[in-house]
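Fold it.
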Amino acid sequence: MFDEYVEHAAGTVTSNILPQLQYEGFEPSPYELDDARAEFEDIRSEGNLDPAVATAPVFDLGRVQFAFPAPLVSFVVCSDMLAMGFASNMIVLIELSHSDQVIKIEIPRGPKDMTIHKIFMDPSGRHIVITSIQGENWYLFRTWKKPKQLKGFKMVIESLAWNKTALLSSNTTSTREILIGARNGTIYEAVLDAEEDFFKSQERYLQSVFSLPERQSITGIRFDFFPPADPKKALVLVTTPSRIYQFIGVPDRKSEDGGRVFSGLFAAYRETAPKILELPGNLQYSELEVFTSNSDQASSLPRSMAWLTEPGIYHGNFNFDLALDDLIDSAQLLPYPMPFSGGGSVEIPQSIALTEFHFILLYKDRVAAVCNLDERMTYEEPLPLPLNLDRLLKKSNEEVRGLAADPVRKTYWVFTDQSLFELGVSNEGRDVWKIYLEQGQFEIALNHTKTANQRDQVLSAQANALFKDGLYYKAAQCYSQCSASFEEVTLKFLDVGERDSLRSYLISRLERTRRTDLTQRMMLATWLVEFYLSKCNELDDLVASGSLPQDIDNLQTERTIVAGDLRHFFETYKSNLERDTVYELIQGHGRTDMYLFYANVIGDFERVIEHWILEEDWSKAIDVINRQPDPELYYRFGPVLMRQLPKETVDSWMRQSLLDPIRLIPSILQLQHAPRDPLSPNQAIRYLNHVVFEQNNTSPTIHNLLITFYISPHSPTLHTAPPEDDGPLLRFLSTAPSDPITGRPYYDLDYALRLCKQAGRTQACVHIYSKMGLWENSVDLAIEKGDLELAKINADMPEDDHPLRKKLWLKIARYVVQEKNDIKTAMHFLEDTDILKIEDVLPFFPDFVVIDDFKEEIAHALEGYSAHIDTLKAEMDEATHTAESIKQDISALKSRFITIDSGEQCSSCSRLLLTRQFYVFPCRHTFHADCLISLAKEYLPASALRKIITLQTELVKDGQNKVANGPVNGGAIGNPSPVAPSGATVMQTRQPGGQRTLLSTNFGNIANPLQNGARAANLLGRNIISAGDRLRDLIVPDALAAVVSAPAWIPGMGGRRSGTERDGSKKMEKLRAELEDLLASSCPLCESVVIGLDKPFVKEEEADTSWTL
């Protein structure tokens, strides 16, 4: 602050730095931030302060390097804004945040016309009032370039009180209400406003509200509204050179409402004297100073005050209680101190300032400070003024003017008529803790300690004082926080028999022991367990001794509290206790409740369960097992608990899905031969069903065990055992899950069959036989036991094997006919199945059986056969009718037609369609006959190609025969022979002997294939691969087109043909029809698109590899 103007005059301070001490129990806090115990750790961490900071001086006086344009008359500072009034009637303003910008404002008055007396500035540093000895007053706002005269203010202002709350909370241009203390003893209320208004001056109003009776100059005045949240009263403090007044009352209105505020308050004292304190003297000046802790907050109230008088400094603290008439509490008069040199008499300072712990006194040649806690002078420094000799020679007449304090920023300034000094207050609370320690105010002293050494000294002194006064519990808390020897403190408490206080000390010491000191923490924790257990037993003995009823209640309450503390101790410090040692201590004191609690806290559930099993309290043992996470304890204690409480044990198992059922088998087998109430369910079966169906267990061992419990004879029961019931077993066998791969159940079928046979469970055996696929065995066994219904069910099992089903039903029928010898029953038996008929059963009847006994059944069967024959006949008639309808539809298709344009083109060659024979398809594609043949042979399979070649050969041969043998007549003209186009190969006629001329001629001749088998096989493979292409080459489109398009005869040309010719013509027509069915069954363009879907766009021989990398 103001760094470029300050030149510190203080010399270098040297101090002996003490070595750092290591105090036991002080280390970084092991607690969370919200733990109350961390408070002491935070203070302890401040012990690492720099020693230079801890020993830094409290006050430091430095000169401000600023050249005065004239002698300085008055100086004031508020909110880091300096205002100086010079004898030349110049006002200089300097804002410390922009100290290079110096604002000079001239008052338009000459030094002979006006002499500045004092300058007053509001707490915000915006409003300045200048008063003169002549009673002329001026007002200056912070942004103005020149002041304005207050023409209505005709008084010499000695003091001025501002509304701090209003000025610091807003940036208004108004001063709000101010109180002015004049030299004539009159108090004025006024309001100034810097807002420019043509119809109003800056003087909003000025009113005299009170005049002091003695008409002395008012040297100090201030006011405060309280309480801050809802101001209801106001305190006005007024001082003269010999008196201090307190005016307390209710203001007329709130400050923000505007208007006069203090008229009513002072009017109440016109008839009644205010609170007055007089300190007689001949001093013509005095000062009133206050200190506010949070002075930068608008609603803060002053904490203390100081009044400079001739007898001394009158000081005290404010107590803003609404019910009090005197708000200055603990008022005292401090005589002025002697100088450090000890020579001369006591001097009265010229000015004072008030800090938190000191009174700053300004003398004509020095500045001093007195501590307001012990009233001792702690600082004195001479002002760096010219030597007295120079002053005597009138080379310099520098005169000390006063002391100014910034009430908001807490800065202090000393000014003379030629110099300005800043008094830095940076380490004021350095020795405050010592003063409070000497006064025995230990808590306040602790709040002002800054290092671990300081805190340790305060705590040690406080602990000794408390121990001396018999406050052992509080002393224990203090001893645990200081560096007092552990052995010394322990022996102190043991000597006076204070085991409870010692316990408190040990707990606090344990809390502050480093976590890395495992041995120390374990010893302290173990000793504390012994203390707790001894205290519990002591209280039990006192309760059992039968004291007074009210004492017993108190003792029981105390015992409950101690037991709760011990439980909390176990939970907190379980990691610092050795379990075997603690178990021995607890057992030695016979505390079973603590034994079980400690075991639960450390997770030693095995020991807890063992205890309840020894006590035969099975329910509590199961409850402990349910609350612990270790599955091993289920396996260990399962057998004994299964024997005692099977239902509760199984419930416990079913709640724990992570258990391995295989490891629980020894526990489950405990129920195999244990006595059981037949009315209650078997708990082993209940658990195994849960494992199989709920947990989807696929272990064959578990499934076999469940079958064992279902099949094995009941264990000895408490009552007569009921007859065996196969229902549960059969339900399991029918619903048991199976392997999805093999389809067989997870249990061993052979093992289950053996057990069922031993136990005589017939139905179960039959079911197992069916599971094994042994249907005949299952039916035979059912018949053997006479269970006809079971045999029928198993006979229908092989649904996909009809012969086997019939065989099984025949077995049952033989049994019904031969064993029952009841014809009626046999006839009813046939109604249960649709596989057997009466003719299948008749062979089983004896030869001597009269047919009259089942005549009706035979007649009924014959009627059924007749009805079935009629049904088949109707179906055949319907099929015949459908075939005739299809033939008619096919014939109708031959006469259908499509209209085409005369300019229609072939879809293949793009020439006119009507120039030769053509075909039209429903898809509107049109082709010449030869074009159609060329396209069709490309996609037809090899079998169709062979058929076409055969038809081509037949048609060509027949055509040639007709040309060679027939006469030239109309028939010959109507049936011209097909002529092969130029360059085409003439078709070979069919070879005799059924030889396949077309294929054999294309495979080539293989000479002596037996001698060169490999070559022959290779050649044959190549020929077979290219056979399809060679077949296509054998088809001649032009020749086929000529044959297909040649009509049999043209009406009107030639005579009747003979029968032979008609037969040949019919044969030719039939061949042409077959050929047309092959060639024109579908459009080649549409068909080729469908066929080519799975073919590549580019063939292998057409691929271009020039672009390959």
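The CA atoms of residues 341 and 814 lie 145 Å apart.
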